[in-house]
Each structure stands twice: as structure tokens, then as C-alpha cells.
Amino acid sequence: MRGSPLLRALLAFIIVALLGIPLWQLTRPEAVLATPTSPVPKAEIAKAIHLHLTFTTVPKKVVVSNLDKVVWDIAAPEADMEHDVTMAYPTEGVDVQFHIEWPEDGPLSAMRVQLTDPAGDRHDKSVWGKGADDEVVTFP
Amino acid sequence: MKLPLLSFIVFFAAAVVGQAADKIRVSTFSTILTEIAQQVGGDRVAVTGHVKPGIDPHEFEPKPEDLKIVGDAQLILLSAKHMESYVGKLKQATGTKGDLVEVGDGFASLKMKSEREPDKVIEDPHWWQSVLYTEKAVKIVRDELIKVSPADKATFTENAAKYLAKLDALEKWVKLELAKLPRDKRKLVTSHDAFQYFARDNGFTIHAIEGVSSEDQPSSKKVGDIVAAIKSEGVKAIFPENIENPKVMTEITRETGVKIAPPLYADGLGDTPEASTYEAMYKHNVTTIVDALK
Questions:
Q1: Are B183 and A97 an interchain contact pair (Cβ–Cβ within 8 Å)?
Q2: Tens of pLDDT along B221-233?
Q3: Interface of B with A (CB under 8 A)
Q4: Any idea of the CA torsion for A88, A93, A97, A100, to the nearest 10 degrees?
């Protein structure tokens, strides 16, 4: 073998490095191609819900909300009221929030809520309160 | 002039020491029970919380100095439901004459399959994740304190009533806050299975990476199942805990693209202001869950 030992060493190194490429390709861990799939939650479609409210004492004001949105604002309530509202009604159920302002110094009073769901099933719940009150009622 | 001043100091010191000695000595093994004992007992109790805020109660083991204090306590409060695996040792080692109360045994348990032994059914010890159960615990502690010191019945009853009113207000706040979150989005992926009582009370489904104890390790099948559930149910976030290693969570987020929410407090109070009281801890958890899943 002729030539400079340094040159020979460099040549040997290059050959080993070149041989290493296919070896590395064969043995490297499989690259995980993370394709983060942004989960797309199933959007529940808003449906017509029938609400029927009855009170033992007529309140001064009632506000009905669902998911932080007012669905029925009753400035002058009556003892017996019905209304159709629109809200999503998943199989897991719904939370309906009631802000009720009962008459000042009035007795402990009750509100009966009858909710007819999109399938036509009627659900019945009651809440009791005094003064200004916020209640969450879960259906079914 | 010096003599009256000295007499006053001696008298004052004696009064302070006497008052401290007069207090009911309570030992607790849960940060939640420490708060309950302090709230109900007020000035009449000297509470030693052996499990400090931010410490994992699943891994806690009492030290000799703990046993010494327990041996001298008049009332010892435990979470129960198998949280304190050392309870037998505690009784033996201390020979305590105090009243040892396993508070969690006072109400029904949620049961689940053991992560380590799948044929075995175990109790979920994290009862404080239900405000209603915490209220029951307050009543148990009140009654136990009255047994130890009947003369203080009025004080304990009044203190408990005030604390229960706070918990009632908290429960109402929780309902109003969670009403912002649709019920079909109430899927909670947590690092260990500590939120079943919370889930039962508030209509959540839990997918826990680890078992009921933070010492349980998840199998790759379980991680795979959780990844599948996250994808199929459209879960938006997963929740680490204040005393957990979120390594597996990072792996799950890489596969699913869901975000990691701020940590939840599962095993008791934390050593940070956001979870320094039961009310603060619970509000932090609920707000974090609603913000991440909404």
C-alpha cells in the first residue's frame, strides 16, 4: 500500500461511514409519524323542548338558561306558564339553570318544572327557594 | 417595678401553657381531615396533620415522631377505605388510648376492580371528591369531638354548622359552574383513578390512566384503550395531578392531539395557595375542568 498513512486512514473512515448508512437505515427505530388528530366532538343539534312552569307563589322574575345562554326571560311571571325553547338534548342529559326572584319576605316557595324532551317524554322536577335564588335542574 | 412585671410575664406564660395543655389533641392522616378538625374544633383543639399538603397519601408512611404524637393523641382521624395501609401498625406501635376513627367507613364506598389484581374488587378511598361526603365527614368529626369533650358540645355544633353552610354554598357553586359544560362533554381523563365520587355526583365518565392508587402503573393495553376512547369520544383535554409524573400523559397527547390541562388536586390539599383549603382546591379543580372541556 502506498500513499500517506493519514490519507489512508481518512479513506478507511469514509468507507466505514458509507457502509454505516444502510446499516443505520435498517436498524433505526421506526419514526412515529405523529399525526395528531384533533378530536372533533359530535356537535349536538339544538332541538325543541317544551317547558311548563308552575309556582306556589308567583315570583317577581324568572330567567331560564342552558349552557350560560338565556333561553327564556320572564319579566312578569304568572302562576302557570308554558313555552317552547331550543337547546341541545344529548342522551347524557341537560342542566337547565333557573334564576328566580321570589317576593321579598315571602314564604319558602316551590316551582314545578315539567320538561317534554324531543322524544315526547315528560320529566317532572321541583325546586324550593326564597329571595333571589339560582338553581340547576338536571333532566332526565 | 420589676417584680410586678415579672409576675405578669410568669402568669401570662402559665396561662398560655395551661390553655395549650387544655386543648384536645387530634392527629389526622389526611389534609382534608386536618381542615375539618380545625374548622369544627376551633380554639378547643390542637391538630397535628401528619400528612402535609402536597404529599401523596398513597405513599405516606408514619415516622417514629408521628407514632409518638399519635400515642399521646385523644382523637386520631383516618380517611379509611384502605387509604392508610399502615393503620394496623399504627394501632400496635402506639398503643394509643385515643379514639381512632376511620371516618370514610361512615359512608358507602364506590367499588372498582383492582389494577394490580383484576379479580379483586377494591374501595375507592377518595371520598372527599364528593362535597356531600365531606359534609358527612364533618358530622362524624363533630360527633367524635363531642364524645371526647362533651362540655364543648355547643362550640363544636356551632362551628360545624358554619362549616357545613360553607360546604352547602360550595356544592351550589359547583352545580352552577358545571352547568356551563354540556353533559355529553363530561369525560375526564385523569392520571390516576381518584375522581369517581366527583364523577358520580356530577355526571362525568372517568378514563383513568393509572389505578385507584397513584402507585399503580398503566399497562400498554390500558393506554391504548384510553387513546381509543379519547379519539372516539372527542375528549378535548386530559388532566395530570399535582403529585404525579405526567410522562404517560405526554405520550397520549402525542398520539391523540389533545391538550394537557393544568393539574388537578386528587389526593388532598396542595402546598400552593390555589389548593390551600378544601374550598379553594375544589373550586380550582372544577374551574380547570370546565375551562379545558368547554
A1: no
A2: 888 888 999 998 8
A3: 172, 175-176, 178-186, 203, 230-231, 233-236, 253-258
A4: 120
* Predicted local distance difference test score (pLDDT) of residue A30: 43
Q: Name the burial class of residue B246, with classes exposed (0-12), middle (13-18) and buried (19+) by CB atoms within 10 angstroms of its CB.
A: middle
What does the buried/exposed string (b/e) look like for B221-235 if buried means 16 or more CB atoms within 10 Å of the residue's CB? ebbeebbeebbebbb
Q: Which pLDDT tens digit goes with each residue over A70-83?
A: 999 999 999 999 99
Residues in chain B where the model's pLDDT stays below 50: 12, 14-17
Alpha-carbon dihedral angle through residues B275, B281, B285, B287, given to the nearest 10 degrees: -90
The overall longest dimension of chain B from CA atoms, in Å, is 83
Q: Reduce the secondary structure of A72-104 to three states and give it as a string.
A: EEECCCCCEEEEEEEEECCCCCEEEEEEEECCC
Contact call for A40 and B234, based on CB within 8 A:
yes
A12 confidence band (pLDDT: 50, 70, 90): confident
Question: How close are the terminal C-alpha atoms of chain B, in Å?
Answer: 71
Name the CA dihedral angle for B285, B287, B291, B292, rounded to a multiple of 10 degrees.
0
Cell of A140: 332526565
| Rounded to 5°, angle at Cα B32 from B160 and B167 | 45
Amino acid letter at B73? Answer: A
Report yes or no: B3 and B24 within 8 Å, Cβ to Cβ. no
Q: What whole-number distance in Å separates Cα of residue B190 and Cα of residue B210? A: 8
Cα B141 to the chain's mean position, in Å? 14
d(CA B69, CA B143): 22
Tally Cβ neighbours within 10 Å of residue B90. Answer: 21
Backbone angles phi and psi of B128, in degrees to 5: -70, -10
* Nearest alpha-carbon partner for B207 in B256, B242, B272: B256
Say how many residues make up chain B: 294
Q: What interhelical angle do B153-178 and B278-293 show, nearest 10?
A: 10
Q: Which of B183, B235, B252 to mutate to test the interface with A (most CBs of A within 10 A)?
A: B183
A51, three cell numbers: 317547558
CB contact under 8 A, A97 and B176: yes
ipTM of the prediction? 0.77
